[in-house]
TrEMBL record:
The keyword rRNA-binding does not apply. InterPro entries: HTH-type_LysR_regulators (IPR050950), LysR_HTH_N (IPR000847), LysR_subst-bd (IPR005119). Pfam families: LysR_substrate. It comes from Denitrobacterium detoxificans. Keywords: DNA-binding, Transcription, Transcription regulation. Signal peptide: none annotated. Residues 1-20 form the HTH lysR-type domain. GO terms for molecular function: DNA binding; DNA-binding transcription factor activity. GO terms for cellular component: cytosol. This is DNA-binding transcriptional regulator, LysR family. The keyword Aminoacyl-tRNA synthetase does not apply.
Length: 269
């Protein structure tokens, strides 16, 4: 400012820094300018708050249980100038709405098709196997893929990469994979497993939902096989508010396998 005005505003010596007479003379005007600027910023902030752009997020069924309890609260704190709306759908319906521009982004397990979409894997969870005790052999506490090939598994179907990947693992080893896809709702599948009608694969986030006296939970034979949760959105440029939400979500999710050891310790008890 001194360079702009063309004269010094402070005396600087070995004792310290002191305002000059000219500085004292312009101080009231400078104070008014600061108050005016603060008022301007406040008005601008108020306008942003009153006209918050809407950012639409779709959650696939079951995803909310995999997110931190304060996920939405933290997201709203970091993106105060956005109005975040959330709706829940079947995973493939979420992707359809995203492609139809009815949603800005989707958080889900890997969908059937990601063509034209950006994928950001947020986190990975261990996979377990839920087997009714009525059909489980005691030797299957740590089953192999060959052991599992003799059982029938309820699954959402070939449209889902997680199920396709499991089928591929069996096929590569020349083993049959008996997949029952008559139910396309995971809650129904879990209920059928409790009734002893078949087995299913369970991500770590759903272990508590299926844990009961009639069902044994065991490790999936290949521990590097995980259930992935990703953020999906259209390729290309996005509105500032949408990009801000995307960046905030990605910043909160280092790609890890949360609570893997905790879940395995609980299963061992």
């Amino acid at each position: 400012m001194e360079r702009t005005l063309g004269y010094p505003l402070f005396k600087r010596d070995e004792i310290g820094v002191h305002p000059t007479e000219r500085a004292l003379a312009i101080y009231p005007a400078a104070l008014d300018c600061m108050k005016g600027y603060q008022s301007f910023v406040q008005v601008a902030d108020d306008q942003l708050l009153e006209s918050k752009p809407i950012v639409r997020i779709g959650f696939a069924d079951g995803i909310i249980d995999a997110l931190p309890d304060d996920f939405l609260f933290q997201l709203e704190q970091e993106c105060p100038y956005c109005q975040i709306t959330v709706e829940k759908h079947y995973v493939n319906r979420c992707i359809d709405l995203l492609r139809e521009d009815e949603l800005d982004m989707v958080i889900c397990s890997t969908p059937g098709s990601t063509a034209g979409l950006r994928e950001r894997i947020l986190t990975r969870f261990p996979i377990y196997v839920a087997i009714p005790r009525a059909i489980m052999d005691c030797s299957m506490r740590e089953p192999t893929l060959e052991d599992l090939s003799h059982l029938e598994f309820f699954a959402l179907g070939n449209d889902f990469p997680n199920d396709r990947e499991v089928e591929t693992l069996f096929d590569e080893r020349g083993l049959p994979f008996r997949m029952n896809t008559q139910y396309n709702d995971y809650d129904i599948i879990l209920n059928e497993v409790r009734r002893g009608r078949g087995c299913t694969f369970v991500p770590a986030t759903c272990v508590d939902a299926i844990r009961c006296a009639s069902v044994q939970i065991v490790d999936f034979p290949l521990r590097n096989h995980t259930w992935n949760i990703g953020l999906y959105y259209e390729e290309g440029l996005h509105a500032h508010a949408t990009q801000q939400v995307i960046d905030a979500i990605c910043a909160h999710f280092p790609v890890t396998q949360p609570h893997a050891e905790k879940h395995r310790a609980a299963l061992a008890q």
